[in-house]
Each structure stands twice: as C-alpha cells, then as structure tokens.
Amino acid sequence: GKDRIIFATKEDHETPSSAELVADDPDDPYEEQGLILPNGDINWNCPCLGGMASGPCGEQFKSAFSCFHYSTEEIKGSDCVDQFRAMQECMQKYPDLYPQEDENEEKSSKDLEAASEEASAAKEEKGSS
C-alpha cells in the first residue's frame, strides 16, 4: 500500500533530524496558484473558492462556475441560468451549510462575478506579455 508504519525509539528522537525540505514544484497543479492554473484550467483547490467546489453541492457549483467562467455570451453567464438554478436548488436543501440570507446571496453572486472577471483579466494580461 501507500502507507508505511515506522516505529521510533526514545533514542531515535534524541538525535537531530537529517530530513531535507524539497522546494515546491511550481508546476504542481495542486499547489495553490490562484483561481486559474497556468494551463488556463480552473483551480478547484483555490482557497478563494471557500470550499464551494466540494461538499454536497460541489458538482453543481463547478458546473455553474465553469459555465460562467468560459461563457462567451454578450452578457457573461447569461447562458448559465440552468446551472445556477440547479446549484441554488441544491444549496437550499442544506441550509446549515449554505445560509440563505439575502445579503449573502447578493454578495456570493458578486464575489463569483468578481473572481471570474479577475481570472479573465489575468488571462488577458498573460496573453499580452
């Protein structure tokens, strides 16, 4: 298997560690690199998503966010109404996990739009350099 059990004695703990830290790999797709990975994919592990990509409505969130992010409509995301409706219906089933306060709903959609616009700006910036 992937796990290995090692027994350490009191003597083992008395000597200083000889472990060396390995530098982070900048191409590691699981490393927190922001919302958009270098290859243009959405980084579902980004802390900026607040864990929305996991949990009981994670798939609905991913579907809605992906649709919005990649939308080419004149009014960005106007082609994603069904995905956002499915996400909202799912979230309403779990009020303890997804509070349905009016203020938070408005804030969430604005945050989602801002995150997507930020990603688009970063993508355009990268493309022009």
From TrEMBL:
Cellular location(s): Mitochondrion intermembrane space
Domain of life the protein comes from: Eukaryota
Gene3D superfamilies listed in its UniProt record: 1.10.287.2900
InterPro entries, sorted: CHCH, CHCHD4
Gene Ontology biological process terms, A to Z: mitochondrial respiratory chain complex assembly; protein import into mitochondrial intermembrane space
Keywords: Disulfide bond, Mitochondrion, Oxidoreductase, Protein transport, Redox-active center, Translocation, Transport
Listed GO MF terms: protein-disulfide reductase activity
Gene giving rise to this polypeptide: Chchd4
Skewed-composition ranges (Basic and acidic residues): 120-129
GO cellular component annotations of the record: mitochondrial intermembrane space
UniProt-listed PANTHER family: COILED-COIL-HELIX-COILED-COIL-HELIX DOMAIN CONTAINING 4
Acidic residues bias: start-end ranges: 22-31
Ranges where the CHCH domain occurs: 57-93
Region span, Disordered: 11-32, 95-129
Pfam families per UniProt: CHCH (PF06747)
The name this protein goes by in its record: MIA40 protein
High-level lineage: Eukaryota, Metazoa, Chordata, Craniata, Vertebrata
